[in-house]
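Aim 2, interim progress: modelling of the iron/sulfur cluster-bound target.
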Amino acid sequence: MKKKVYFKTFGCRTNLYDSQVMMSSLQEYEITENEDEADAIVINSCTVTNGADTHVRSYISHVEKHNSKAKLFLTGCGAHTKGESLLKENRIHGVFGQSEKQKIDKLLKKEQPFYEPGDLNHIDDMVVDEFVGKSRAFIKIQEGCNFRCSYCIIPYVRGDARSMDETRILEQIRRLASNGFGEFILTGTNVGSYGQDTKTSLAKLMKRMSQIRGVRRIRLGSVEPIQISDEFKEILDEPWMEKHMHIALQHTSPKMLKLMNRRNVYKQDRELFEFLADKGYAIGTDFITGHPGESEELWREAMLNAAELPLTHIHAFTYSKRDGTPSATMKPEVNGRVAKERLHELQDLIDAKNLAFREKFRGELDVLIESYKEGAYHGLDQHFNKIVVESDEDLLGNWITINDYEVKKEYNYARV
Ligand code: SF4
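Predicted structure of the complex, ligand included:
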């Protein structure tokens, strides 16, 4: 009988991919969904904040209580920051970096405790896809990041930016498109840096993708403002571009951007966003509230700037300390309650802007229906806005065009 292995994945989409690669590389073990019966448990960890490290430690304690026979293995970003200490404490059997994941069979068999951090410059030669429903596919196109934002540990645990092989990406898309996938979402640690190391570019890749039969809409994960090059601006009017972009600002106060060691500059961000909005784009951003040094005065300035920007979506986070990053020792710190209040203030502002955008647009919506919940279909339109559709027909996985709809506070609604 084959031994059983259980995978516990923490963190982001990248880790989900890596777990998927490990699972598909396994040959001599059986995957189990039940951690209590596992002979081996692979913890694919996240280390993005101190809190994420704590989750991994408490999970190890939980396993120690419930399944003391299982051998524990640690991989993912936490392997680089916490691996050695956990190994010394005898709490895990082996540590390996994400570059080693395709050797999973060999690693699980090792009798002696081991530490194999691997190579931070590694790039997968396998393009793994993850599918949501039957019509949307996430494609990882690069790994790592060359930026050094003060609060972020990612470049230290994921390495510098490197791109996946274009021929493989396109091959994968061709295969998925011929199987009925119409929407492709390009992801990675820093998607906008795709191609810098391989003498190509994101715009070129997207143009090539669009020529594949069946590719209907292309969406991008988060990009950085300075990555919207002139070449990229030329594809903005293409019909296959999703009319929504997620561009990470993280802040809108110039002083805060400096403290955070960001490469974007507010004045230019504003010009770029206005340019995109004039082209009909809905624009989302990431924002961190409560980073050390964010005084009341700088926060007010940031809110005034955010109010000026044509934003429609936001992923706002309160700052969370990560040891080993420059921000972790910066002073003065911002009280957690204040950071939360700021987050809500910003969120309310962008929610109101989103509603105003939808009310003003009132045009045709190009919708991909992705799920069916509580008697209605749910989908996203070309602006990444939610729509709830009631219908007697089975719409799941369909693309539909909707002209007649009601704009509600949190989403659009239609009956077809
Ligand atoms: S761009 Fe900044 S926040 Fe994003 S992964 Fe790179 S260093 Fe981290």
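The chain has a mean pLDDT of 93. The first helix runs from residue 13 to 25.
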